């Protein structure tokens, strides 16, 4: 089977699929051999086009998969804007620029609240529970803009991984006794028991409404409502490993069945 007989991916996420030819991401367009340039030009859809080429392909009208992936990856500001625009349940969140940020934040949010590094943080890093004014002062010293969010007193959240509208895995992340964060990398425990169907339905609806082609959504239940906390495009795989699953095999199966 030649390169032109397969669907085309730049990223290696689909390398296990017989249906795809993964070309790799080269830093310069001219670095690609002519046959690969032609394959990319002729492809109806480019899969996992990378941050480098996603905008390029979209600018010339070419479809990419997954949608809303690289542009929202690691960007809490954009994600929050999307959730707010669509009216999706999300903890109350505000951004603060300019002067008098500390006064304005304390007027808007009762202690405790959560403050985060808005772009580029992951695995629970760059997240603080603010209980005292001096903690807020320290946070503001290093963060412009400030990203401040309502604190929900929960002891777990649900990670739901969705690809092309299909829930492919889900599990609870239960906090360690000494940490308010639910991240596995911060000591949270993975649990597969008693995952409610309505939580999966909520997550699936969020993914569809937001146009997420592939995403790991963090969902929690608080005061009789489900909330989406964050969308993760680069999500941890420990929950897959403990369940004996391989995300690359799952993606390959979806691809080979024509679902992506």
Describe this structure in words.
By secondary structure, this protein is an alpha+beta fold. It has three domains: 3-65, no CATH class; 92-150, 2-Layer Sandwich (Dna Ligase, domain 1); 156-256, ATP-grasp fold, B domain (D-amino Acid Aminotransferase, Chain A, domain 1). It has eight helices and 13 strands. The protein has helices spanning 34-42, 50-59, 76-86, 101-108, 133-142, 197-210, 238-242, 247-256; strands spanning 7-9, 20-22, 45-47, 63-65, 93-96, 113-116, 127-130, 146-150, 156-163, 166-174, 189-191, 214-222, 225-232. The strands form three sheets. Strands 11-10-9-12-13 form a five-stranded antiparallel sheet. Strands 2-1-3-4 form a four-stranded parallel sheet, with helices on one face. A four-stranded antiparallel sheet has the order 5-8-6-7, sandwiched between helices. The radius of gyration is 20 Å and the shape is globular. The mean pLDDT is 93.
């Amino acid at each position: 089977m030649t390169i032109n007989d397969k669907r085309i991916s730049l990223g290696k996420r689909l390398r296990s699929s017989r249906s795809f030819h993964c070309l790799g991401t080269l830093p310069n367009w001219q670095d690609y051999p002519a046959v690969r340039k032609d394959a990319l030009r002729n492809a109806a859809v480019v899969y996992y086009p990378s941050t480098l080429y996603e905008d390029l392909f979209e600018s010339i009208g070419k479809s990419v998969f997954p949608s809303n992936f690289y542009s929202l990856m690691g960007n809490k500001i954009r994600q929050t804007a999307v959730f707010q625009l669509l009216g999706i349940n999300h903890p109350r969140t505000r951004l603060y620029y300019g002067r008098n940020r500390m006064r304005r934040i304390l007027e808007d949010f009762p202690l405790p609240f959560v403050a985060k590094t808005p772009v580029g943080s992951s695995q629970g890093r760059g997240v603080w529970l603010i209980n005292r004014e001096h903690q807020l002062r320290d946070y503001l010293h290093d963060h412009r803009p400030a990203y401040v969010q309502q604190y929900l007193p929960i002891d777990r959240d649900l990670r739901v991984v969705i690809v092309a509208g299909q829930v492919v895995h889900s599990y609870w992340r239960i906090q360690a006794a000494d940490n308010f964060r639910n991240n596995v990398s911060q000591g949270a425990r993975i649990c597969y028991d008693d995952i409610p169907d309505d939580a999966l339905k909520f997550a699936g609806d969020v993914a569809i409404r937001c146009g997420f082609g592939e995403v790991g959504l963090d969902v929690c239940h608080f005061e009789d409502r489900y909330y989406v906390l964050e969308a993760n495009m680069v999500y941890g795989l420990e929950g897959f490993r403990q369940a004996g699953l391989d995300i690359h095999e799952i993606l390959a199966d979806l691809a080979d069945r024509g679902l992506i």
